[in-house]
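testing teh design pipeline on a random one, pls ignore if ur not involved
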């Protein structure tokens, strides 16, 4: 069985842990009222705030810029303002029917929690009420569900599988491109690449 956390870190290169801070996670979990999965926390601590392969953004709870808690709250608010009950959605567009949700809510104990996003309009949500990992992804009015860990989702995303919906792959051959997100207005981080991966 594949150890996806190790596999994805092997693609990204050595962990940097620039902002790793257990207290920041404790504060975030207390603020949200949920606990985010350990593989997700390890990857965020190891690399975030970062952009991967020019599309995927990962925020961190210990930074002022690109703060994970602020991003979760802002995204929850934006998605909560959508009048879901008034939308005339087809069965394949309605996440309630697709995923067996009694109601659609964001940032609630039974709701969807945004944990990552892309510049292509994709939002990756976590459902925390199940004993096994469950990710739900929204992409241009389509939804996809993955009953896998975040580490496995990220690994499959980076090797070019359709992890945000049909025909949604964002595959780039060669090493993964990483780029720190700027921590000030005048900072211009340069991208770099992970190890060669034979792709």
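output:
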């Amino acid at each position: 069985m594949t150890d996806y956390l190790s596999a994805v870190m092997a693609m990204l290169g050595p962990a940097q842990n620039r902002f790793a801070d257990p207290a920041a996670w404790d504060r975030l979990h207390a603020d949200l009222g949920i606990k985010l999965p350990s593989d997700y926390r390890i990857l965020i601590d190891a690399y975030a705030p970062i952009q991967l392969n020019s599309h995927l953004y990962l925020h961190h709870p210990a930074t002022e810029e690109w703060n994970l808690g602020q991003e979760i709250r802002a995204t929850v608010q934006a998605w909560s303002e959508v009048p879901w009950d008034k939308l005339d959605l087809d069965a394949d567009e309605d996440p309630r029917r697709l995923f067996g949700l009694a109601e659609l809510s964001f940032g609630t104990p039974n709701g969807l929690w945004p944990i990552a996003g892309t510049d292509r309009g994709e939002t990756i949500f976590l459902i925390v009420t199940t004993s096994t990992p469950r990710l739900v992804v929204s992409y241009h009015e389509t939804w996809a569900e993955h009953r896998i860990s975040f580490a496995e989702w990220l690994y499959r995303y980076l090797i070019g599988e359709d992890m945000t919906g049909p025909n949604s792959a964002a595959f780039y051959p060669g090493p993964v491109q990483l780029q720190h997100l700027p921590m000030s207005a005048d900072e211009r981080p340069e991208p770099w690449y992970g190890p060669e991966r034979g792709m």
